[in-house]
Amino acid sequence: MKSSRSLALTAGPATVLVAGCAAVLVAGCATSTADDTAAPTPTSTAPAEVAAAEPRLAVTYDGGILVLDANDLDVVADLPLDGFNRLAPAGDGRHVFVSTTGGFRALDTGSWSEPHGDHAHHYAGTPALTDVEFAATKPGHVVRHAGRTVLFDDGTGRIDILDPSELADGKPRADTYTAPEAHHGVAVALADGSLIVTLGDSESRSGIVVLDAERRELTRNEQCPGVHGEAVAADETVVLGCEDGLLAYRDGTITKVASPDPYGRIGNQAGSEESAVVLGDYKSDPDAELERPQRVSLTDTRTGELRLVDLGTSYTFRSLGRGPHGEALVLGTDGALHVIDQNSGAAVRRIDVLAPWTEPDEWQSPRPALYVQGHTAYVTDPANNALHAVDLDSAQVQTASLPQTPNEITGT
Fold first, then answer.
1. Which residues touch 116 (CB under 8 Å, ≥6 apart)?
2. What does the pLDDT look like over 24-70, one tens digit per residue?
3. What are the C-alpha distances in Å from 66 to residues 27, 36, 46?
4. How far apart are alpha carbons 280 and 303 in whole angstroms?
5. How confident is the model at residue 14 (pLDDT cuts 50, 70, 90)?
6. Comparing C-alpha atoms, which of 372, 220, 234 is closest to residue 299?
7. pLDDT of residue 46
8. Half-sphere exposure of 62 toward its Cβ, with a 13 Å CA cutoff?
9. Longest CA span, the chain
10. Closest CA to 247 of 292, 309, 197
11. Model pTM?
12. Which residue among 47, 53, 87, 392 is the one 20 to 30 A from 270 at the CA level?
């Protein structure tokens, strides 16, 4: 049963009042593989049908992962796991991929819904780290699109493409492709079976190549130095960041959108398949060891217009999100969630959530992180071992304490 306790609701700075529960011209290869020896793994203990959906969150800490009820922020499970771990939704509304030592490991959050005609049936059980794993020497980006999830191994250049709906039955069969050179890269599978893959090696990255379903080259662009980060916008437009702008791929054509500065790096993006506008970070000092930018980018993928918005505060790579109505969301180091109109760039609302904070020097170190699910923005608060849930419609903030210091956050 869930614990009984009160929650703080406020439209101002959140205060922790609640004790949380413990608890191809491209050289490569294309093959289809499966682990024939891997038996399906039970993923959740005694799942039962429940009256309503019980979405869940996953939060890393130094030594493990917390799974929380996304509605009341109760801790459902505390799963020990050594190392610095990263999280990404697996794409099936139930599992999360954990980038950990050895590869991408599936975490079953224990909660899911199954459509049935004009309604759905909802289930909830005990979360568990499964033994379903895709081996990787340096597990990197996880990208979900068009019913496929793509895993990129930075250490080998190996790309696994899988159907996440098969995760509940064990390890899915995966189509694989290996990039010509290992690099910190990303790949996106499109609805027609084609694949976008970054180009680079251990020293530099230069652009993207698009491969058809048989992995023959369709087109490429190598005018994207430092290519990093991806987002999918409306009309299946895939956008990838560069140190001098971005590349947008749609309907067989790659378009370069240049930054207004000679060096204008866009490395992290937040997109919505319902919107043509992509939110991105923006750094303009090529010599900075740690630049703390105060501008973000809004790029209209239909027109190629790139607009810069001055926030008046800095932010980090874990600060970007999109709201339910397409609004751009940025979590500032001033402690506020800044809501920006995606079309005009105008500030719509400021919601005070945290005390002002400073970005740590090491990117792996905990810092406030933003994750948006539906009409709620979740903000971690490492300084206070807390989690805040912001209602994006009412601006009310619900706060719960956590038994550990949070780092990364995602959900199902």
1. none
2. 333 344 444 444 434 344 444 567 878 677 899 999 999 999 999 99
3. 41, 31, 19
4. 16
5. very low
6. 234
7. 63
8. 7
9. 61
10. 197
11. 0.88
12. 53
